[in-house]
Design goal:
The protein is of the alpha+beta class. It is 45% helix and 13% strand. The chain has a five-stranded mixed β-sheet, covered by helices on one side.
Amino acid sequence: MEISFSKDDLVLIDNIQAKYPVKDASIMPVLWLAQKKFGWISPDVILLVAQLLSVSPSKVEGVATFYTMFYKKPMGKYHIQVCTNISCMLRDGVKIYDYLSDKFNIKNMETTADGMYSLEEVECMGACGGAPMIAINEDYYENITIEKLDSILNTLK
């Protein structure tokens, strides 16, 4: 499969770049767009972004590997992040993580064999008042219990 951006993507990237004084300042938003399009940041995606922005592949790779928001391998259709930092930990965040790990038989940054679910233990998600918190792709859920979690999972297919 060839990795490329569509004409519409390129227009969007031009608009992104117009917001920054230099091209390499737009690496993060362009990588985010690329991840949404391709699902993860592969070596081919790094080369594509580097060529598009006229920067070195190592500069793009440095950004992609520094930030945990960029996936360095394919993730599940539903990527579940569970906060286990102090507030969430005190309100069963670890229990929720362990429940999901057992339910799907995967560990941190692993994906189920069918490619449906991946699991990630994360630090603070910034919702201490709504602990425990999870994210499924870009949807956030606070005050999660195992019962609420099962209800949410039953809606995903």
